[in-house]
Amino acid sequence: MLDCAIIGGGPAGLTAGLYTTRGGLENVTMFEKGMPGGQITQSSEIENYPGVTGEITGMDLMMPWPEQCQKFGLKHAMVEVTRISKDGDIFKIHKGDGTTEEAHSVIIGTGSSPRRAGFAGEDELFGKGVSTCATCDGFFYKGKEVAVVGGGDTALEEALYLAKICTKVYLIHRRDSFRASPNTVKRIKNAQNIELVLNSVPDEVYGDNMGVTGIRVKNNDGELRDIEVPGVFTFVGNDVNNQTLIQEDGTFLCDMNKQGEVIVDISMKTSIPGLYATGDMRIAAPKQVVSAAGDGAVAALQAISYVDELLN
């Protein structure tokens, strides 16, 4: 019987592993089907993690985390978790190999996956000029021109963020109106260095060995336009990785919002006692490494208290 099962090996899961084991839980396993580290390992450069200076990749940043956790006794099971269920006070961890394990508490941090827009060159140049995070990568384009693809609140807010540090932002949207809040749309239209490229879709992003050099867009009449930029930011939504919370009857184990994000309180508690959700999969997530790590620490402290009370 595990004191705590941690599902997901990103910054939230690893921090939860560190705090639960160092905090006194003796039997803790982190289930991560691949190598630990999370989405951030795909980033080519990190500049906004506190205390980390100089040129460092996402992989470099995350490399020491598993070793630090394992020093205090965290076990890593390299296996996929297909479902989490609960029977009384006991959680069941259903694994991809057909076996199950039991746990007194569960901390889940399986994250979310940015949707790809699907245009040519997007996958090939992802991380080399194509990004889904303006807060992470926008600074690299300070004083330069960039393009933003999308028409929702996130796309417009990120375009406004980029407009503060870039000389010009091309906002590419397939319609002639936006789905974002009226106030955000007003701010976009008032921004002097944001050019609206409406009724247009990305046709291809292209570049060279150094990365992106431009994006070609196609309007509703089929006309093509080349926009020479070193950075392209796509914001067409996120898919929450919540599959492990789906039960046999198709319902979710805990309360979710309409976007499929887990509803938690300030302590990362879900609607199910002993179940905590962290990182990008929970509501109002900032989608930053430092925030995910904070979630993991908070959830771990809550899990320690929960297990202590349950067993004593």
Total helix count?
7
Shape: elongated
Mean pLDDT: 95
SSE ordering: EHEHHEEEEEEHEHEHEEEEEEEH
Distance separating the two termini = 16 Å
Q: What kind of sheet is the major sheet?
A: 7 strands, mixed
Quaternary organization: single chain
Could you estimate the helical fraction of the residues in percent? 10-25%
Gyration radius, rounded = 21 Å
Strand percentage lies at: 25-35%
Which stretches of 5+ consecutive residues score pLDDT under 50?
Answer: none
How many beta-strand segments? 17
- The chain-level structural class is alpha/beta
Structure characterization notes:
The protein has 7 helices and 17 strands. The mean pLDDT is 95. It has helices at 11-22, 58-62, 64-71, 134-137, 153-163, 182-190, 289-311; strands at residues 2-7, 28-31, 75-77, 81-87, 90-95, 100-108, 112-114, 130-131, 145-149, 168-172, 194-197, 200-208, 211-219, 224-227, 231-234, 238-240, 275-277. It is elongated. 23% of the residues lie in helices and 28% in strands. Strands 1, 2, 3, 4, 5, 6 and 17 form a 7-stranded mixed β-sheet that branches. Strands 8-15-9-10-11 form a 5-stranded parallel β-sheet, covered by helices on one side. Strands 12-13-14 form a 3-stranded antiparallel β-sheet, with no helix packed on it. Helix 1 packs parallel to helix 3 and helix 5 packs parallel to helix 6. It is α/β, with parallel strands linked by helices and 312 residues long.
